[in-house]
Amino acid sequence: MSQLHCCAAFMSLKRFNADVRAVRTRIEDDEISGVVAIERGDSDGEVVVTVAHEKLPGLLPIGLLAQNFDNYPNDNGFLIFTASENAATSVVSALEDLRDYTSGMKLLETIMALSTRLDRALRSVDGDEDIIMEDPHDPHGFDDSMEDDPYDDFTDLEFGLSPMRTKSQHRPNSRLASGILRRIKPDLRVARDVGCKIGVLDGLQLSSASSIFSLSIRASELCLSQEALEAWDVEISDYIILLVRFEGLYPFAEQLLEQPCANFNVDFRFGKGAKYKPSPAQARAAFLTEASRNHDAPEAKSQTLKDHQGRTFEKIFISNSLEQFLNEQCLSMIKLRLQNPAYSWDDANEHLRNMSSRAWDDQPPAKANSDREAAKSEPKSTTKTRSTRKSKGKQKATTAAGASKAEEEPPSPKPIPNFLVWDAAASRPLEQCSVPLIIMQFAVHYFSRCTEYCLRCHQHIGTEFEALKPFVCSNPLCLFQYLAMGFGPSIEHEILTQPYVVDLLVSLCYSSVQFPKANYMGTFDQGSPQYRIREFPCGLHLKVPDPYNVVVSTTIAASNTDTAATSAVTAAANEVTTAPTTFIKVLADLRNGALTVPINDLGRVASDTWVMLREGIRPTYGEPAYYHVRVKYIDHQTGTLEVDVNALEPLRAPGAVEMDLLLYDTEFDDLDNKGKAESMITILRSLPPISSLREYLIKNPHSRLRSYAGIPPAAVTLLEWIVASNRSCILQVTPVEDPHVRDRNLLESIKTRGQEAIPSLEDSVQFRFAQGAPDKELRFRRALREVNPQNSKYPTIFAWHGSALSNWHSILRYGLDFKHVMNGRAFGDGVYFSQHYSTSQGFTNPDATNPWPNSALNISSVISLCEIVNAPERFVATSPHLVVRQVDWIQCRYLFARRSPSQARIPPQAFAFPSDPARTVLGPDDNALLIPLKAVSTRKQQMPKAPSSSKRAHETTSSLGETDEEQVSDLEFLFDEDDSSTPPAKRANSARDSSVDSATARQVTTQRPLTPPQTDFRPGTLDLASLPRLSLPSWADGNSAKRLAGDIKHMQKVQSSTPPHELGWYIDFDSMENMFQWIVEFHSFDLELPLAREMKKAGVTSIVLEVRFGRDYPFSPPFVRVIRPRFLPFSSGGGGHITTGGAICMELLTASGWSPGSTMEAVFVSIRTAMSETERPAHLQTTETSARMFDYGANEALEAYVRFAGVHGWVVPEDLRETATQGGRPG
């Protein structure tokens, strides 16, 4: 028995030590609230945990001693104590009470329960209620007799049900039952099997009052176009993450059908992240209310955009709309689909909208199971179901993901992600349905197809044109809520991702309301003046200060001091006036944040509201100054207001100054045009610089802009309208030097697109229209199809249009037209264009509007490069200007905001849009303008032909390798020892040996086809001994090795199954000794290319390249360089993206343009395409076969790469120098 006892004791010690390590990992990952450290004690089975809490004066050490250590954990309990002499009575009491309930609990469970109980005890110290400690095994505080039946896990009480339970009722004392945990795990395993990654973030223990888990999927698996990803600011390597938090009752399928949805206290958050799950602190912070953030909740303070493991959770542009949809209707729609398996998501949404939820939600699902059985008995495709209902007289086709399709839709539907092909709501028996998986499919369906649905009511919008950004349906209520109630695009997301596009929109709006509109004769319309803005922001219930304020309410007020002067002032202030009042005379000491107001007028001012102060015209300044202040506190005894000043302009006078106080009490809609224009100018002046708003949002993640203390609510409303009313998708191309930025590091996260910039316009900030307003874009494409045949070589042309700065706000919303005569119409009615930049630039400054004072752009003029249907014979005029009457033939593609100082030089672009030689557009230097191919979204962009790759459909983007390992703790939760399920291997491939044996062991055995006669290249003839051979790096066992293992396997398969003359590249895998160094030969170029002819003449059959991979691959690009032969440098007529030192320098291979989703096959295709370009073709340095040629060296390639990237403004990878200078031997 002694041997058995020793063995048991040893196993207990081993398990206890393992649990200590597991707890330490959880603490390091911030997964146990309030616990900051764990250390071993003086004896076996003893640990000391350190607790931090906002109500503790310092750190509190708490000891835990196992009382029956040899039988840990089954027959063990913990003695819990603290050596601190200053511990509060409530803390000591909580520790003593918990001690009695730790029998059989593991160390982690004990510490989690300790954290929860201490937090509750400490928070109750200042309250009136006593601390109530419950048995953690009895989640509802009932007596022990309720635990007699260990199999009674599915009773109402175990699930926290109560006849009066509603979603709004908070039950902090509810705990998870073991039966719920046993049901959650298989549900999450099903979701994992389908393709989700599962993250356990908070709770999910028997002692948990609230639990949070995440489901995530790579953006690369959602069949999203590159244009959509760019417009939505989602990287292909990002994870799309759904956070689920529930308290008490978990909504598994049977319970969801039996109970009203209001019984389930479930909340959702939707966003993206760099890893498959955020940190626990980030997850908890995502669920904080605005009030909690404003009161500095600990979770808000602990959250950062990126933790030490690179984890993030960021909202995306549709997060607000989708989260509201999830929280309000998701469970109800799932319930409808479980009751009616033939329903699609669209059917369920329509059903829910057409009847009261109370009418069906509380009814027992009498037919649910029979309907499911009937549905399962019918033959059903794994990818499609057919809805048995009709909507608006049209039968709908339904995918398994629940997406309805009208029969008249185009024959080539949008691809369905594999994740949505299998319908989790209709393809399994009810008891096997995974509700978390159904919720995730719901979220992914509406996210990936968001442009097909109304942002507010989420009904399907039938359209033949796919917009890049979602909008609302034709329902006026949806449009009102979109513009007026913040249900449009997230203004916070726009500021974070596109701050200078927002700056541009505000600047243009500000200019549009500065002066009344004059006609081309210089006269103004009679009556109410008209402004450049065509539509004022009416219907927003916007309250503004009265812009006219001609009647004074009272005379100046003074503080209640006992002097004759102030007494006289006070007496005058208290005189009753019968005239209408608009502003109040006050004495303002803004440096000390105090206003003195007449006692009689105090009732007109409310605390926590904004008012405007006007300092009268002073000789020194010549104009009044305006200050917007927030009233914090009103002292009714002294007539003093305590205020916060939004001092966007410096205070002009020290001490107390007489000012006019104007209330935000005038309805904007009731004003005439002049009053509306002046009010908008006043409000926009109170708007801080966009970079200041962005800095606030970065430092306060998930906060709303309205919580920013330095901005009046009216300014937020107007800003939301400005952004929401612009339906064009505008992207910033070139960087901006922002004088308002205080933290220069924050500029690095702003994306620019230098490869899309147009040279010779360095004095302007460039913006590109990824897509115009959808309705305008649709009409333009229709016109293009009708006017020009499909095989037209030049279906469109480009030309300049210049217009006054004040016109561009309306141009962005309504397009270019000729409703108003601005500069005369000497050549007929129509929109005027010029193919000479200087001509159009002359029309950009006819008015003297001032830029928005808080703008970083400081715009002086705007000019646009427009795409026009190429039908000059139908133009009104073609000389000296192009005059186009058909407004649907016109789309703006670039916007150039001119400012000072000049921007950095923009290099020429490699791939320019082929323009009609008869209609060439000229730049400021009167040379032909080089327009990047990305400027044209109306037809397929034809890259310069690369014959070696055109005969085979190369995948430019493929599924990412599993580079983000699932954490052991997550797998342990899903497949713990109490379950009969077997834990699978981790999704990420295990580290592999990088020797040649390991590489060849994975080689595809398919016989490589013999070299056909179409090429003179012969594999295996390269002398590898003459090339540099690198030693295996010391860090070759990380994630980069795992990704490279998959890359090598894929490239071997491609090479072995494709004829060499079609593939165009070759790697000798049999001779590969170091997986971090590839030697690649490019061959079989089109003989019509200058490069191919020169190679033939020089007797060169291949271009030898070296690819070096760093420790951060695939999150950092490889270093690619030419070894031989040498090429002409760019300055001597060379090209092909080959630098003077031989490095391949394309933005794709820099930190600016690289994506972890890029495959090496796609990289090779891009490099060959660049080498094959005809605009600036690559040329060999010499074609003499007898000339002695020297190989390029790695160091000269590195230096040339850095120089070239610097010229283009591309970001050099952090690990570049380490990657490019790996040690090795010459051969």
TrEMBL record:
PANTHER family: POLY ADP-RIBOSE POLYMERASE FAMILY, MEMBER PARP. Residues 962-980 have a biased composition (Acidic residues). Residues 991-1009 have a biased composition (Polar residues). It comes from Diaporthe ampelina. Residues 1039-1211 form the UBC core domain. PROSITE patterns: UBC_2. It comes from the Eukaryota. Keywords: Glycosyltransferase, NAD, Nucleotidyltransferase, Transferase. This is Putative ubiquitin-conjugating enzyme. Residues 356-414, 936-1022 are annotated as: Disordered. Residues 386-395 have a biased composition (Basic residues). GO terms for molecular function: NAD+ poly-ADP-ribosyltransferase activity; nucleotidyltransferase activity. Residues 369-381 have a biased composition (Basic and acidic residues).
